[in-house]
Design a protein that fits this description.
The protein is an all-alpha fold. It has one domain. The protein is 96% helix and 0% strand. The chain is rod-shaped, with a radius of gyration of 49 Å. The mean pLDDT is 89.
């Protein structure tokens, strides 16, 4: 019977459409769950990366500060050492000048007096 066959075909089509709609809804729901899960993982990864980045920045700043303090200390030590060397050199130059002056004075006196 043609009517029966048409009715069966219509029922099969309606059944297939319902199954298709159910499959679409299921896939949409799974996609939504997967997107939510992926977003959550992404948020956690971003939060973790930001925390690590902050820790690295703090660590780098601390190292920079320590290096700067160390460099300033070394610079101060070098300045003090240089000042001390300069002071010693000035003292040495002053002694040499005194000796030179004394020798000059002696030589000049020897020219005037024959008692050398």
């Amino acid at each position: 019977d043609i009517n029966y066959t048409l009715r069966e075909i219509e029922e099969d089509i309606n059944c297939a459409l319902r199954e298709n709609e159910e499959n679409i809804n299921y896939v949409s729901q799974k996609n939504e769950e997967n997107v939510d899960f992926a977003l959550q993982i992404n948020r956690e990864n971003v939060t973790c990366a930001l925390r690590e980045n902050e820790e690295n920045v703090i660590c780098a700043l601390r190292e920079n500060e320590e290096n700067a303090i160390c460099a300033l200390r070394e610079n101060e030590e070098n300045i003090n050492y240089t000042l001390q060397e300069n002071e010693e050199n000035d003292s040495y130059v002053l002694k040499n000048e005194q000796i030179s002056f004394f020798n000059f004075f002696r030589l000049n006196n020897c020219r005037y007096y024959t008692c050398c």
